Every structure is written in structure tokens, then in C-alpha cells.
Amino acid sequence: MRAARPAGAPATVARAPRSGLLTFLALVFIALGGFATLVALLQVAVFNLFVPADLLVELAGAPEKVDEVPAAMRFLVLNLRAFAFFGFVFSVLTLVSAVGVLRRRDWGRLVLMALLSAGALLNTATAAFLVWLAFQPRLPAWLVPPEAAVSVPDAGAGLGQLALSSLVFAALLAGLVAYLHSRAVREEFDAF
Question: pLDDT by residue (tens digit) across 5-53?
């Protein structure tokens, strides 16, 4: 026989069933976030321990060749360590937010949505840049040296394929954001 609930004790609340898809997504992002964190940590270590700062300045272009290296490329090379650290932070945030999603914490869902949205925007911007680059009358020398046997249409087709894959990945990330923002998922998080 079941004992009666003592007077004043709170009634138990029935929890919503856990979505298998949401659990699967959380486990996938835990695995991806963990692996990406390890790789990013190794990148930070290599760039800080084995790549001298003067080498990065040399790679960015000697003063007499500054016009040959685009400003964006110089910026990326000169700030390589900062980008590696940003990748590490992004990976750790992905791992932590995925654990939050697995435990059905709303902050984890919101942080993961923000990270996926940032990824979708970055992929969309990348696709736009690649399309712009593909339609240039002549490709810049920093991308395809003049002595290379690559014609502009061949390179443009390759850039177009890369742009398409970036857009597909951006759509996938946007779809995951929409799923995490759906009413059913929000209700599941509200129940915990």
C-alpha cells in the first residue's frame, strides 16, 4: 500500500517526455564541441609556442610588397593567434552549451542557438564573398598566381561550388536554430 503524502508536501510535477532528436543533437554537439576544443587548444599552443611573431609579420608581406597582399589577408595573418584563441573560446562555448541542452537547461539552448546563428551568418557572408570573387574579371594574384594554368571560368566554377556548399551549411544551421526555437522544444525546456 502506498503511503499518503504528508500534509504540506509539494505535489510532484509530471515531466514532459524527453525528445530523442534533441538528445541526439546534444550528444552530437558534445562530441563535435569536445573534438573542436581539443583541436583549437592544440592550435593555440602551436601558434604561441612554435610560431614567432616576426614570422607572422613576414608572412603578412614585406613593406615593399604590401600592395600585393590584400588588407584582409594581412589582417588575418597578423591576428592569427587571436583567431586561434577565438576558435578555442567558440569551441568551449559549444561544448558547454551542448551539455546544457542535454540537461535541458534553457541557457544552454539559448547559447547554442546564438552560436549556430553566428555560424549561419558567417557561412552566408562567406558565400557572398565567394560569389563576388567568382565574378571578378580577373582573379587576384594572391589567389591564383599568373603563371598558374587556371582559367577564370574554371576558378569561378570552383568558387561557385564552395559558395553553394557554404549556403547549404548555413541553411542547415538555420534549420537547427529554428528547431531549437520551436514551441515543442521550448515547452520541453520549460518543464525542467
Answer: 666 656 555 555 678 889 999 999 999 999 999 999 999 999 888 877 7
User: Each residue of 101-128: pLDDT tens digit?
Assistant: 999 999 999 999 999 999 999 999 999 9
- Domain parsing of the chain, residue ranges: 18-103, 105-192
Answer positive or negative: Cα dihedral of 139, 143, 148, 153: negative
CA distance to 83, 114, 136, 186, per residue, from 87 (Å): 6, 15, 31, 28
